[in-house]
Amino acid sequence: MKTVFVTVGTTSFDELIENITSSESVQALKARGYECLVLQVGRGSLLPAADSCPHIRLEAFRFKDSIAEDMKRADLVISHAGAGSCLEALGAGKPLLVVVNDKLMNNHQLELAQQLHLDSHLLYCTCSTLTETLTTMDLSVLQPFLPGRTQNFANFLDKALGVQ
Residue 131: which residues within 8 A CB-CB, separation 6 or more? Predict the structure, then answer.
């Protein structure tokens, strides 16, 4: 079963959960052959019921000890732009669509998403452009994130966070 795994990490990102479960986004996923949507909703106020998306199989949970198995089963990972979530998805070798929370102040997440996009490791969008991105995305352009590049990633994070 072709599966999309959505993660917000330990944060609250209700806008992403609302948008990915909208009828427009679900239709875009179905048009691409996805049949199952697994949501990790973190501390958000939304925990959609299994029957809330009638045209796709839906599972939702707040937290697990590990989401590695969910990522492994996924054909596409949609994530907030948290460094840990991005690195875990890229390390699992999964196509990654990052949804940047543009409502955060001093948002370094956008810088991270932009750099990894420039390096062709992921696609990114905002909640307002999510459905359009799901409709038009070309996952074939993505390049693997090679394991030996973790120091480059750490250096980028240090620079983005002003540590260097």
Answer: 19, 22, 24, 25, 28
Q: Does the pTM exceed 0.85? A: yes
Strand order across the beta sheet in which 96-100 lies: 57-61, 36-40, 3-7, 76-79, 96-100, 123-126
Domain chopping of the chain, boundaries: 3-160
Higher pLDDT, 150 or 77: 77
Residue 100 backbone phi and psi in degrees, to 5:
-80, 130
CATH number attached to the domain at 3-160: 3.40.50.2000
Question: In this structure, how many other beta carbons lie within 10 angstroms of the beta carbon of residue 154?
Answer: 13
pLDDT tens digits, one per residue of 51-76: 888 889 999 999 999 999 999 999 99
